[in-house]
Amino acid sequence: MSKKTLLILGASGLTGYKALQIAKKRFEVIGTYNQRAVQSDAGSLIKLDISKEEEVKRAFDEIKPDCVLNTTALHNVDYCETHPEESFNINTKAVGLFARLCNNKGSRLVHISTDFVFGGEKGNYTETDSPNPLSLYAKHKLEGELEARKCSSFSILRPSVVYGWTHLETQGSTSSSGKPMNFALWALSKMNKKEELKIVTDQFTSPTLGDVLAAVSIRLLTFEKNDLYHVAGTTPISRYEFTRKLAAIMGYDPNAIKPIESKSFTQIAKRPMNSSLNCDKVQKALNYKLLNVDESLAVMRSQIEVESPELLGA
Ligand SMILES: NC(=O)c1ccc[n+]([C@@H]2O[C@H](COP(=O)([O-])OP(=O)(O)OC[C@H]3O[C@@H](n4cnc5c(N)ncnc54)[C@H](OP(=O)(O)O)[C@@H]3O)[C@@H](O)[C@H]2O)c1
C-alpha cells in the first residue's frame, strides 16, 4: 500500500522538524519553511509563506496532502501585542484557510494551539475549563482553534513552553515565528557563556519537550476523532525551578540562577501566572505516557551529548 502524503507546515521549527524526522517512515512527507531554509534527509522541504493565500492554495493543489500538521505560529507574545494584523493573519486567518483547503480534499488537520488561551488563575487546566486569553497572541490562537474546528477531520493540541534540542536554533538564523531560540536552549546558551540568568519564580507552566509534542501530533494524524487535547510535560513548575533543573542536568550550578518576580520588570503583553495543563485526557485516549520534567530533560541532555557536547557544563 502506498504511503499517505503528509504536509508539515513549519518544518523548520522545533516541533515541525522533530515531526518530520518521526513521520518519515510512515508517510510521504513534505515540509515547509519560511525564513529558515533548512536541509533534511527526512523529506522534501519547500518555501511557503502562509500569509500568502494564493501560494498556500497552489501548494495544497500540487501536494494533495492526505493529512496536514500545522506547527506554524507567530508566537513572540509582545510582538503580537503591537502587530495585531500580523498576529491575526498567521495565528487565526491562515488556520481557517488550511481548514477550508483540507475540507476541499478530505484531508485531516492536526493543529497546535497554546496553554496561553487560559487566564492563569488556577493552573492544572483541563480541556473543559473556560479559556480567558490575556494577550492578543492568546486571543488569536484561541480564534485559530475555532477555525481548525471547521475542518471536518481535526485534532487540536495545546502544549506549554515548547522546548528541546535542535541544531536549527544554534545556527544564528531567526525564525519568522518571532522566536530566536526555545526557552531551554536560550537559558542553556546563557549558562554556557557564563552570562547572568534572572528567571521568574511566579510564572508556572507545564514545559513540553518538542520531541513528545511531535510524536503525539503524528499519532493524532491517524486517530480518527475530532477533539481537543492538552499535550504537555506532566510536571507543573515555575520558570525558575525549571531552569534550576535544566542547569543541574546539563552540568551547571543551579544556584547561579537569580530568582526574580514578574512585577520587577515590564512586559508589553500580559502572561498567565499559572497556565499548567492537565493532560489526562490524551494519555487515556491514546494510551500514551507523557514525560515528566526530569524524563524530558534527560532526553534533551542525551541528544546534546551526541550532537553538541560543548554546550554542557562540568
Ligand atoms: N514555543 C513555545 O513555548 C510554545 C508554547 C505553547 C504553544 N506553542 C505552539 O506550538 C507550536 C509550535 O511551536 P514551536 O516552538 O515548535 O515553533 P517554532 O520553532 O517557532 O517554529 C514555527 C514555525 O512556523 C513557521 N512560520 C512562522 N511564520 C510563518 C509564515 N508567515 N509562513 C510560513 N511559516 C511560518 C516558521 O518558519 P521559519 O522558521 O522558516 O521562518 C517555523 O517553521 C506553535 O503553534 C506555537 O504557537 C509554542
Mean pLDDT: 95
Strand order of the largest sheet: 3-2-1-4-5-6-11
What is the annotated CATH architecture? 3-Layer(aba) Sandwich
What binds here, in terms of ligands, is: NADP nicotinamide-adenine-dinucleotide phosphate
Structural class: alpha/beta
Largest sheet descriptor: 7 strands, parallel
How many distinct domains?
Answer: 1
| CATH class assignment | Alpha Beta
Low-confidence stretches: none
State the share of residues found in helices, binned by percent. Answer: 25-40%
Shape: globular
Spatial gap, N to C terminus: 50 Å
Order of helices and strands: EHEEHEHHEHEEHEEEHEEHEHH
The CATH superfamily title: NAD(P)-binding Rossmann-like Domain
Number of distinct beta strands: 13
CATH topology value: Rossmann fold
Radius of gyration: 19 Å
Count of alpha and pi helical runs: 10
